[in-house]
């Protein structure tokens, strides 16, 4: 699974068959671990999320997964209460949040928003829905 450390997850088309098999093998290993072993995987790490569109299941699944492997999460789930409401750009929001976290999860209404975020972030970005494009963690 180390081959994915620090990598963006934007599209399923970015992965080949071998990489998918590696992901599924890693998931099987994690499932086979005790709760204490799993809680060490991301100990001390922070997942940041930015949901510019409504989401319940996707956001909560990322938060739950991070908690199960020992990490924490923080982020924006309501743009009305964020600086976006005051006109902060996506680039600025991504840069600021990425300075606090180890990985970013983004859902946005604009096509290409996750690839754009990956270009401006200094941390890996996971696409949780990018406009009319795919949602690779749900595909």
TrEMBL record:
GO molecular function: amino acid binding; carboxyl- or carbamoyltransferase activity
GO biological process: amino acid metabolic process
Residue ranges annotated for the Aspartate/ornithine carbamoyltransferase carbamoyl-P binding domain, each copy included: 7-139
SUPFAM superfamilies: Aspartate/ornithine carbamoyltransferase (SSF53671)
InterPro entries per the UniProt record, alphabetical: Asp/Orn_carbamoyltranf_P-bd, Asp/Orn_carbamoylTrfase, Asp/Orn_carbamoylTrfase_sf
Keyword annotations from UniProtKB, A to Z: Transferase
Descriptive protein name: Aspartate/ornithine carbamoyltransferase carbamoyl-P binding domain-containing protein
């Amino acid at each position: 699974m180390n081959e994915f450390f620090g990598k963006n997850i934007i599209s399923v088309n970015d992965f080949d068959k071998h990489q998918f098999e590696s992901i599924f093998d890693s998931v099987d290993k994690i499932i086979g671990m005790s709760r204490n072993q799993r809680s060490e995987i991301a100990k001390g790490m922070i997942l940041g999320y930015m949901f510019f569109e409504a989401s319940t299941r996707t956001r909560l699944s990322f938060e739950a997964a991070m908690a199960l492997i020992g990490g924490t999460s923080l982020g924006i789930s309501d743009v009305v209460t964020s600086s976006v409401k005051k006109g902060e750009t996506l680039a600025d929001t991504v840069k600021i949040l990425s300075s606090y976290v180890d990985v970013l999860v983004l859902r946005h209404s604009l096509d290409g928003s996750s690839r754009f975020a990956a270009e401006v972030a200094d941390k890996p970005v996971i696409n949780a829905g990018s406009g009319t494009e795919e949602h690779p963690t749900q595909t």
